[in-house]
Amino acid sequence: MPGGSGGRKMAAGDIGELLVPHMPTIRVPRSGDRVYKNECAFSYDSPNSEGGLYVCMNTFLAFGREHVERHFRKTGQSVYMHLKRHVREKVRGASGGALPKRRNSKIFLDLDTDDDLNSDDYEYEDEAKLVIFPDHYEIALPNIEELPALVTIACDAVLSSKSPYRKQDPDTWENELPVSKYANNLTQLDNGVRIPPSGWKCARCDLRENLWLNLTDGSVLCGKWFFDSSGGNGHALEHYRDMGYPLAVKLGTITPDGADVYSFQEEEPVLDPHLAKHLAHFGIDMLHMHGTENGLQDNDIKPRVSEWEVIQESGTKLKPMYGPGYTGLKNLGNSCYLSSVMQAIFSIPEFQRAYVGNLPRIFDYSPLDPTQDFNTQMTKLGHGLLSGQYSKPPVKSELIEQVMKEEHKPQQNGISPRMFKAFVSKSHPEFSSNRQQDAQEFFLHLVNLVERNRIGSENPSDVFRFLVEERIQCCQTRKVRYTERVDYLMQLPVAMEAATNKDELIAYELTRREAEANRRPLPELVRAKIPFSACLQAFSEPENVDDFWSSALQAKSAGVKTSRFASFPEYLVVQIKKFTFGLDWVPKKFDVSIDMPDLLDINHLRARGLQPGEEELPDISPPIVIPDDSKDRLMNQLIDPSDIDESSVMQLAEMGFPLEACRKAVYFTGNMGAEVAFNWIIVHMEEPDFAEPLTMPGYGGAASAGASVFGASGLDNQPPEEVVAIITSMGFQRNQAIQALRATNNNLERALDWIFSHPEFEEDSDFVIEMENNANANIISEAKPEGPRVKDGSGTYELFAFISHMGTSTMSGHYICHIKKEGRWVIYNDHKVCASERPPKDLGYMYFYRRIPS
Q1: Which region among 26-40, 379-393, 515-529 has the lowest average model confidence (pLDDT)?
Q2: CA 352 to each of CA 290, 387, 530: distance values in angstroms, whole numbers, following the listed order
């Protein structure tokens, strides 16, 4: 058979007999089963890969040739479906052209085609067969006559199954949008309508945002609160109800890669394969568009200073880069925020070592479903980016040889982070959608996941962690309080008042408004030029504290707060606070140029602590007011730290509160929502341990911690059986679990760290019996709660990466990343990786600095 893996083929009479011992392990996929046919759980191998893909007929997980043996050894599952797609050059006709197209019945796999191949020159053939391990017996498919009925049904069900990334519940969006059934035969009225490149307004009201172009008659009308979370009066929907024209595209989202298209008839976002043609009907050249919130910029309006052009280094012939560390990430539809952050993260040696450096161990000890394991998926992504396996330059001699053999072996350039995104974003209302997101919010979300899934005692996110000293002064008594909190990035305000070109900005704004009013082309953009020193000064200046409660006065008073670095991180992430909210609560962006330095020295921002002559505020907490029903719920429904509502945590973190404090707030308020947790933060934010990590003694300790809020006493140190059961379910010995819990005061997370850091553990039954029978065993091991983990040092840094955002708000636009590698800047723009010629360091959104050793 073509593309065989060296397996042994069976005689017809032996097939049924061979499968009999394995019949109990072969399952028919049920509703809710995720069937992976496109991607290996440990790598980016697919049926397009040289070795094809093996789908387990019991778990429906898929594995490349390099990893299928591991799954067989771990689970004993023997029967796999091997899938392979062959790509060949089409047979030429007598005139030299390809033979006429005809429906290819040999294609049955739902796979992405290779964008580098011209579909008119190549044809595809899919092959499926059963392979039985460990002897690699092969059974060709289909084989209805010789296979047992159950096996035939199971094979058909696997081959016809839908993508596992489609919508799992009503609260999440599909990552794969359906093609609209109206797209192929869409009627477009020949009414002479031409859409201008800017200055749009709803035809029925005065709204100039969230505008939708009806693809039948060219009407421009406002949307409602749907699809992109923008406001509107719903005139686009009213127009559909009046006229029945089904498809509309959102103005401001049109780029050469596509646009947001909505089907009123199908009531969901859709794909329009003929979008370029449909837009051209109204005078829009899709290939020269860049999505913005308020206008389409095409080449007739001089986009020479456009943010899109500058950041993407358009107009410059960029040299593609290949090899280890130069692998791109394919855009899944508004997934560029994730791609940019992950490229920066895996350029850091500590993350490379923690995941890719531990690849054999992480893969070997992964759970039975590695697609649902954070460390496995991080390692898979890191290896995909760093190995060079998926970033190889085309070699002419190989291409000639392939043509001679009439089979094309496509070089995969770039990897699709679909499995990684599906896992890290599950249960998160925003990241699980296909809408554009804030890269800074995703960075904090990722840090949170790294913290919660530490590999032993190793935590690569420690390189970002630093302590902030906050000095709060009561304006009435002049007394002060110093507290410390943990943070992971420095948020730098944009000092707009310090712009060095104010006169130009005023003149530009007047001209722009006049052009919009008269529907004329907009003038050449004038961008505010802000000195970095002014932003740094704004960061260090005192700010007013709203609703400050003075312990000296035992009442609310005016207060001011200043922040300094109590420690400097190994890697400093600086976020430019470009986004704010307009009067309509839609996020807006400051379009500014800041002269970010290559070398950064912030040693002058080092905290100094209590100074001579300063008097501290009394250590008295404000009164706690908790409704009775909330109090009862706290007492009766205490939660395990692993069940903390992460969406509430992220809502609070996005307000600027420390991540650890947000987790504690949600925990101590019993998952009652962000609003109740916010009240907890306001009450506790002045406490010395406000931003320290949540360290609770397992499930049993959760009760004691919650009870301590109301003055109850804690429990003893006897390991709770449910916590012991969790650890033993992971494959560890019971004795080992008990000893680890004893050594960590019954803290589940720290107990797992203890186990990984004590691989030399030997079973000591006498010790365990003694511990289990000792009512006062907590005396034996009183572990001191660990403080915040920081890697303090010099405050002198060097820029090595930055992430830029194009667009006017976090709800739209595009992210790309620049990273300095081997002495030169490289641009990562989704799957395209090139040597940078003019890195736009002044237009970035997030900057990554590494410490310069002193």
Answers
A1: 515-529
A2: 35, 11, 35
Q: 82-86, 99-103, 797-801 — which is least confidently predicted? A: 99-103
Torsion of CA 385, 387, 389, 394, to 10 degrees: 90
475 is in an annotated binding site: no
Distance CA 648, CA 626 (A): 19
**What residue type is 849 in one-letter code?**
Y
CA–CA distances in Å: residue 707 to residues 156, 236, 530, 702: 56, 54, 51, 8
Instruction: Return the amino acid letter for 478.
Output: R
- Rounded to an integer, what distance in angstroms lies between the CA atom of residue 96 and that of residue 746? 75
- Structure tokens that stand for 566 in this block: 């109590």
Give the CA dihedral 109, 115, 121, 123, nearest 10 degrees: -10
Domains contained in the chain, CATH given: 12-90+106-160 (3.30.40.10), 177-290 (3.30.40.10), 313-463 (3.90.70.10), 646-685 (1.10.8.10)
Exactly one of 445, 814, 818, 831 is catalytic; which is it? 814
In this prediction, residues 425-438 reach a mean pLDDT of 78
Flag whether 222 is marked binding: yes
The CA–CA distances, whole Å, from 188 to 63, 124, 219, 270, 560 equal 47, 34, 11, 18, 62
Please check whether residue 844 is in contact with residue 802, taking contact to mean a CB–CB distance below 8 angstroms. Answer: yes
- Is the N-terminal amide bond of 134 cis, ω within 30° of 0? yes
**458-472, 712-726, 775-789: range with lowest mean pLDDT:** 775-789
For 299-309, the pLDDT digits (tens) are 333 333 477 78
Q: Please state, in angstroms and rounded to a whole number, the distance separating the CA atoms of residues 202 and 221.
A: 4
Count CA within 13 A, CB hemisphere, residue 446. Answer: 25
Q: Does 817 belong to an annotated binding site?
A: no
Q: Which of 56, 155, 336, 834 is catalytic?
A: 336
pLDDT greater at residue 377 or residue 672 = 377
* Residue 758 appears among annotated catalytic residues: no
The CA-to-CA distance between both ends of the chain, in Å, stands at 63
**If phi over 0 gives left and psi between -120 and 50 gives alpha, with beta otherwise, what is residue 250?**
beta
- The DSSP code for 197 is S
Q: What is the pLDDT of residues 262-297, one digit of tens each?
A: 999 988 888 898 998 999 899 887 665 544 433 433
DSSP 119: T
**Distances from the Cα of 16 to the Cαs of 22, 78, 96, 155, 198, in angstroms?**
10, 15, 48, 15, 68
Tokens of 835: 């040597």
Which of 15-24, 248-257, 478-487, 525-534 comes out lowest in average pLDDT? 248-257
Q: Within a 13 Å sphere around the CA of 312, how many CA atoms are in the beta-carbon half?
A: 17
> Residue 115: exposed, middle, or buried by beta-carbon count in 10 A (0-12, 13-18, 19+)?
exposed
Q: What is the pLDDT, as a whole number, of residue 15? A: 79
pLDDT for 427 beyond 80? no
> CB neighbours of 21 closer than 8 A, spacing ≥ 6?
none
Residue 818 labeled ligand binder:
no
Instruction: Say how far apart CA 344 and CA 850 lie, in whole Å.
Output: 12
Q: Which residue has the tokens 């029978």?
A: 773
- The verdict on whether 336 is a catalytic residue reads yes
